[in-house]
Structure formats: C-alpha cells, structure tokens
C-alpha cells in the first residue's frame, strides 16, 4: 500500500505537532503493514529531523515544491503503473486555505472518482490503519476494536448526493445490523427519508426513526451536522459525494469538511462507498475478535 502524505506547516512545528504525534503513535503498524509514505513539502524534513520513522525504507521524499508535488501526486493516484498511489493522507488545520487550491481540490476529487482512501483527519488515519490490520489478519485492539465497542455511545452521520443515494441505500442494506449499533444516526433530509423506509422494511420499529432527518444539504442540513461535529456529538461521517457533478451548495459542503478537519482527533470521515464497505467488513471482523 502506497500513500501520499500532505500536511499543513502548522502540524510540523515541534515534536508534539499533530503529524509527528500521529506517526509516533502508529509507526509500528505502518512498518508492519509496509505502508509506503510519499511525502510532499517540508513534512519530510520534519519527519527525518525528529527521528520519526528512522531508517524506514518506505519513507520517500516526493517533492519539495508543494504545487508540483500535489500535481504529481494526483497523476500517480490515477495511474496504473507500478509507481501509482493507493490513497492519500491530507492533514490540514482549519485555517489552512491551501485545500481550496485547484491542485488540492483535484487530488481529493480523483481520490473519490477512483475509490481510493482520502484520509483528512487523525482519527481517519488511525481508523484506516486498524481496518487494514484486520484485513491482513493482525487486529489492533488499541484502535479498531474500541471503535466497534463504543458504537453504542457514538453518532454516525450518513449523507449522500442525489447521484450517490442508490449507493448509500445499498451500503446501509448490506451493513444494516452493524450501523444499527450506533447510539444515534443523523442524515440530511431526502437521504434520511429513504433510509428510514429501508429500516422499516428490515423490521425496525415503525414509531422510531432509524436516522434523524435534518434539512437537505442545500437548505442547511450540512451546517446542522457540522455543528454536531464541532460540539463533539458526531464521531463518524460517511458522506458519499458525487465528484462528477457540480454542487450549488459547495460552500456548505466545504463548511462540513472544515468542521471535520477541526475535530481531527475525534471524527472519522469516509467519502467513498468502496472505502466505507471495507471499513464495515473490518468492523465485523473486529466484532468477532473482541468476542474471542
């Protein structure tokens, strides 16, 4: 597995910075999974300078120039040659406007189009590592299994653009029992209505909503869920974005994504049906491991 790595300069200023703490926390797992890290910009120097990932052959300096690095990373993300990337870690602080640059937007968009992980929070990176650990037969009791155990106290947001609603319905149908373990589910309007219909067909009590319906995204639903995230009342957001269709409420979507980024330690964000299904399958495996 080869991942591109991009981060804000604010995450590199000391040994206690977000990126270095993250790598220190999961270094052993990265080595065990043999994850290649292709680092853009000053982050490589910070990693090496602080002795993190010391002598790790999978650590690569992608490019010193951020612009050229992001362009190359996007090209490698969609490529089929041996040097192609399998996903991206893109950690930025909420006040970093670089994510609005065309090359950064294109990187995220191509991640969605090609169904590759786009890990934009610390919680998402740890969750992904746990997922891959379970897929490779090496469960991490410290990261993934507590996530499953804590579902009964967590809130899950399920959102889908019009062109992705069928994919969301399929995902929930396939993993209904797992998703029902969350203490609460929230959705934007039309997605929520269809999910509640599905739940009733699965035997969910007719007088209890399976998911709480907020307003539609363009009418403020994304803002309502962003507020939940910022108040630490939503721990996982599964948002099936349609990357091939322009959205008039892009500002609302960006606000939600920024809220998730601001809560980087606590909120997992998944934007692709393929990545969401891989997590759900791993969560089932985690349930089995925790019961052994």
From TrEMBL:
This is Uncharacterized protein. Signal peptide: none annotated. GO terms for biological process: methylglyoxal biosynthetic process. One of its GO terms (cellular component) is cytosol. The lineage of its organism: Bacteria, Pseudomonadati, Pseudomonadota, Gammaproteobacteria, Lysobacterales. InterPro entries: Methylgl_synth, MGS-like_dom_sf. GO terms for molecular function: methylglyoxal synthase activity. It comes from the Bacteria.
